[in-house]
Amino acid sequence: MFKLGMKALLRGLAVLAVATGWAAGKEITLLNVSYDPTRELYQDYNSAFARHWLEKTGDKVTIRQSHAGSGKQARSVIDGLDADVVTLALAYDVDALWEKGKLIPQDWQKRLPNNSAPYSSTIVLIVRKGNPKQIKDWDDLTRPGVSVITPNPKTSGGARWNYLAAWGYALKKLGGDEGNARDFVARIFKNVPILDTGARGATTTFVQRGIGDVLIAWENEALLTLKESGQGEFELVAPSLSILAEPPVTWVDKVVNRHGTQAIAQAYLEYLYSPEGQEIGAKHYYRPRLEAIGKKYAATFPTVALFTIDEVFGGWQKAQKTHFNEGGVFDQIQKANR
Amino acid sequence: MRNKRLRLIAALLLGAVVVVQPAALTLRAEDTNTVELIKQLQKRIDDLEQKVIVLESGKGPGGEANDAKAKEHVEALDQKVKILEREKELEQEASEAKAATAPKISIGGDGFNLSSAKGDFAVQLKGVLQVDSRTFFDNPAVVGNDGLLLRRVRPILEGTVFRDFDFLFVPDFAPSSGPTIYDAYLNYRYSPALQFQAGKFKVPFGLEQLQADRDILFNERSLVTDLVPNRDVGFELHGDLFDGRASYAAGVFNGTTDGGNSGNVNFANDEAFAGRLFFQPFKKAPATALRGFGFGLAGTYETTSTTSTAGLPSTTGGTLPGYFTDGQQQFFAYNPTGGAVVVADQERWRISPQAYYYYGPFGLLGEYAISDQAVRRTGAAPFSSAHLENTAWDVSASWVLTGEDATFAGGVIPRHPFNPAQGDWGALQLVGRYAELSIDSAAFPLFSDPTTSARSAAAWSAGLNWYLNRNVMVKLDFSHTAFTGGGGAGTSAPATVTRKPENVLFTRVQLAF
What we know:
- The complex is a heterodimer of chains A (338) and B (513).
- In chain A, 46% of the residues are buried.
- Chain A is built from 16 helices and 12 strands.
- Helices cover 49% and strands 14% of the residues of chain A.
- The longest helix of chain B has 38 residues, at 63-100.
- In chain B, strands 3-4-5-6-7-8-9-10-11-14-15-16-17-18-19-20 form a 16-stranded antiparallel beta barrel. A two-stranded antiparallel sheet of chain B has the order 12-13.
- In chain B, helix 1 (2-20) runs parallel beside helix 3 and helix 2 (34-55) runs antiparallel to helix 3.
- Chain B folds into 2 domains: 2-100, no CATH class; 105-512, Beta Barrel (Porin).
- Chain B has 513 residues and is an alpha+beta fold.
- The interface between A and B is medium-sized, with 23 and 25 residues.
């Protein structure tokens, strides 16, 4: 009799919980502040994660996205944009959240596998149909009369990868001479008629506005452009040597602590490493970390010899200081090119 | 032969445009005439293309080479135009981005708002003006209680600094004693669940008292609010939990009397503690009929040691104020006879269960309050002390006749703001209330004169609220209060008040923004 009574009571409580919305789970909102070309990736990934989280916890999560040049996004977060997570183009921009805002711990990169970079990419070239300027490698970008489209390294993480990829190539080809490499990169930028603030803007300039002979782009952006153009309007040119780009992710401790979203923000980023997360990344042309997914999508990615930023530039901090800080090599090149 | 000649002419024309004109058409993005230049270039390209087509009818010697050169020139010009257009586009984007970071100014139903682009810093200027009339019926013994008055004249300055720090300043210029600070506090929002407030503000206790002055249903709050502390100086932790299904507030204050506003300074070494828990368990429920239900419990505890009687009104007879009718007339006072004085004696506690329910145009609000006051009789024998437990309750109901939603906070927002020219008349709300207040029988006769002070009061009220728009409203309500006890000889309150039931008609014109 007592057991029956307890069962009835529990059933009643369960019905009451559903009826009153207590059993409906929480509604949580996260803000993912990301860089320019990840819009499509995170649109898909956010839906997948929301489904996963609902099944796992019963909580409904809505993830808002913000996209712009990586450096610009980092500054916005430091200035108060309430990002629960950041998924930026390069580690230097995430480091700034610690250095300038103390929003994350210094060792943030150790919190997730692969230095907190769940996928990788590289830098390639896109040319117009038939490759009218016969662009085969980085050298061709230095030729007079070749119009090169790349965004501004001051605001775009992708642009910094572009710049460093060209520099690394020049160093290797020209016997490791920094002066020659600088001259090489200066000649490329002399051919740049317009500097967009982000990678997506540069793609718009090249693809939609019809400006330039070659676009230096993220590999994922290039493959997406080829897929979306459909008519074979563009061709991908894989350079003989390029840079291994590792866009990192992390949760923003000061924000998630205030929002009470630390656990879900961490889970959101960890899910990027799961087979489902990796597959979504690969579908959007980001090179996966999981071997099985990598094999499955091997044919998608061109074969390119890659060097790392640590090998050639001694890491992001050093590269930033030498090349992109105020008065750095990039500023000097631009001044000379005017 | 003729064709070749014509193509040569076309090439020369192109060359002339490209080579001769650049000085006149200097293409610089910063040029203020960029758009005009783009148009001119585009027109020249179009003209030249047309000429080439026309000349296609014949080709002269060397035409192939000239064709290629001409095409190259056209393409180069085309690129220049596109680059200029793109630069213009990027400038536009940059100026839009800059505009997004500019401060925002708005003026509307919520007052005057000025905020930084991200909202981290904001200032809002608001205000409440209430112009009332009170007309008493069949109560000639009380002189001078009819009239017009400025009930509240409160400019409100509120805002935010550094995103998480809110402030509020509310003086009132209506009291005849001069401007008074009603609210002045700083609130730090660590999260919705954890906030810290310091300054002068409403004690977290009475439900009706916590409703904003602009939103109350009647001109005056009910008899229950006689037992409820109003504003006090203190510190408070508060917040919302479970997506707003529960809220809490707990604070330490200077302490104030029933219905009282504390002064801005108090060095009496007394502390009052107040706390309130309020639940809206169905706030997120699928069934909308349940969402507007809320209930809670509040309490205060304090010790007082005041014995001074200086400066108090002669009718109160002690440091403790009496209680007042809807018409703001005193019907109970601590006024023992024989020259005795009643003072607060250490402990005072209050407790109040409370609830409301709102569904569509219907609203229901009720609360019960006990105020337990330790009192001491001094100045004349018999010297005595006691705990007096006074109680009150009320229920008020409202119905928006025009169908708009009734709410606890935010009032009624008319669907069709007042505009007679278009046949729009705002919103109408019917309101009713019943309230009772009972004095502990132990108060009589040692602490209060039973021949003048009432032992209890019961009041019913009914009225009509007309919301012309979200900022302007007009009230008309009638209140009837009957008394048990009192009514004896005397020429001042409470005797004059309790002699007959109080019947009073209120009107109010209110501006709140």
